[in-house]
Amino acid sequence: MNRLPSLFAAAAVAALATAAAVPAHATDGYFMSGYGAQSKGLAGAGLAYPKDSLALATNPAAATALGDRWDVGVDVFTPKREAAYRGTALDSSYSGDDKKTAFIPEAGYVRQLNDRLAVGLVAYGNGGMVTAYRDNPFARFGASGTAGVELQQLFISPTMAYKLTPTQSVGLSVNLAGQTFRARGLQPFAGFSQDPAHFTNNGVDTEYGAGVRLGYLGQLTDRLSAAAFWQSKTAFHEFKKYRGLFAERGGFDAPSTYGVGLAFKATPQLDLVADWRRIELSKVKSVGTSLAPLFAGVPFGADNGPGFGWRDVDVWKVGANYRINDAWQVRAGYDHAKNPVPSSQTLLNIVAPAVVTDQYAAGATWSQLSGTRPSGLEVTGYVQYSPKQTVRGSGSIPANFGGGNVDLSMSETIFGLAVGWKH
Questions:
Q1: Which of 401, 351, 397, 391 is nearest to 95 (CA)?
Q2: CA 24, chain centre distance (Å)
Q3: What is the mean pLDDT of residues 139-153?
Q4: Whole-number Å distance between alpha carbons of 289 and 291
Q5: pLDDT over 60 at 140, yes or no
Q6: Each residue of 402-419: pLDDT tens digit?
Q7: How many CA atoms lie within 13 A of 110 on its CB side?
Q8: Which of 183, 99, 180 is nearest to 138 (CA)?
Q9: What is the SS3 string spanning the chain?
Q10: Signal sequence: where (predicted)?
């Protein structure tokens, strides 16, 4: 176990180095559906069912239930995004998939200090959105070059958890975060900004922020566990290069989120899990404010300036994990999330078409045996699939942009592989 901190540190450095070079993506709004390969095989469920150290990324109280272990994983993300004009003088469709594949790393470490106290550290991509249109869908309004945005968020969360009783635990994580953003090809909207020079095509901007996460994990009966968490808004410094685009002169905080979960041991081999979570996107002005203020004379970049018009997202998750024997476990899950993009807000969301609502997942874990018992080494793989979802615009193109509508479509597939070691 004395080598685990250095192994985790190497993985965290790799995650930090990679985060600036590859796009992060998500399925629940712009959040990841879950953290850790075993949870992702359950479609992100498992607040009350921690399986690996990345469980701390949602519920810090899980640290008391995991023993000593570390985990390192990588996801391979392949989305398909499309925007189509309808009812305009020139109806046409555009693909936002010029960047088709992303590799997203994550790593976690947890250690029990005594019978009641545990500590941990996790590094993970919180979420993001990347679109790349080789043919600029805003060219009809005077844009030039390629179009798209790249938003990426990386969190590193030192964690401490404490057992109040042998069956009840609480935990606290401090979220230390960095995010990068770049926008291209949005020139037609810059004239509606209070700072047009800092609206688009200004390269990559990087800012940092912090927040906290609280968690609870309890064994209610021999067969039933419950959990809850709350994560504060992560307050970031404003994007200076894009202070003319985002409300509050470049403000872009990560929204607060909270949820509850249950885990039920149906049989000695079969565990059932269910979670509900809420992501408060509407409370981040640059994300939740609609275009409506623009028509009342409020420019982009102002304190109450227009934004992407996203709604809060409720997410429901269910899953099942089955232990075949000491060496093999298999699992499957389903995730349903509310679409955050209203039909009236599809024009600006051409560059952020996060409209998928359903996700199906399956996975398996192999544990190396020493004799007839697990030796400590685990290898986990999973796949998640979100079928194509389309939001048809309704009154989404203002009259001074010619009227008509924009329809947004997105689907995605994610594969992942992780290696873990438990003492």
A1: 351
A2: 8
A3: 93
A4: 7
A5: yes
A6: 999 999 999 999 999 999
A7: 32
A8: 183
A9: CCCHHHHHHHHHHHHHHHHCCCCCCCCECCECCCCCHHHHCCCCCCCCCCCCHHHHHCCHHHHHHCCCEEEEEEEEEEEEEEEEEECCCCCCEEECECCCCEEEEEEEEEEECCCCEEEEEEEEEEEEEECEECCCCCHHHCCCCCEEEEEEEEEEEEEEEEEEECCEEEEEEEEEEEEEEEEECCHHHHCCECCHHHCCCCCCEEEEEEEEEEEEEEECCCCEEEEEEEECCEEECCCCCCCCCCHHHHCCCECCEEEEEEEEECCCCEEEEEEEEEECHHHCHHHHCCCHHHHCCCCECCCCCCCCCCCCEEEEEEEEEEECCCCEEEEEEEEEECCCCCHHHCCHHHHCCCCCCEEEEEEEEEEEEECCEEEEEEEEEEEEEEEEEEECCCCCCCHHHCCCEEEEEEEEEEEEEEEEEEC
A10: 1-26
Residue 264 identity = F
Cα distance between residue 103 and residue 18, in whole Å: 8
Cβ 282 vs Cβ 342: under 8 Å: no
Nearest in space to 39 (alpha carbons), one of 259, 319, 292: 319
Residues 54-58 have a mean pLDDT of: 97
Q: Are 202 and 242 in contact (CB under 8 A)?
A: yes
Q: How far is CA 31 from CA 26, 57, 151, 277, 302, in A?
A: 5, 12, 11, 11, 26
Structure tokens given for 166: 């042998």
What ranges do the domains of the chain cover? 4-422
CB 323 within 8 A of CB 373: no
CA distance 23 to 354: 14
| Residue 189 in tokens | 């909207």
Q: How far is Cα 284 from Cα 277, in angstroms, rounded to an integer?
A: 17
Contacts of residue 368, defined as CB under 8 A and 6 or more positions apart, other chains included, come to 327, 374, 375, 376, 377, 378
Residue recorded with tokens 């998939």: 97
Read off the pLDDT of residues 329-365 as tens digits, 9 standing for 90 and up.
Answer: 999 999 999 999 999 999 999 999 999 999 999 999 9
Residue with tokens 């232990």: 323
Of the pLDDT bands very low, low, confident and very high (cuts 50, 70, 90), residue 104 is confident
Q: Which CATH architecture has domain 4-422?
A: Beta Barrel (2.40)
CA–CA distance, 336 with 277 (Å, rounded to integer): 11
Average pLDDT, the chain: 91
Q: Which two tokens stand for residue 54?
A: 């990345």
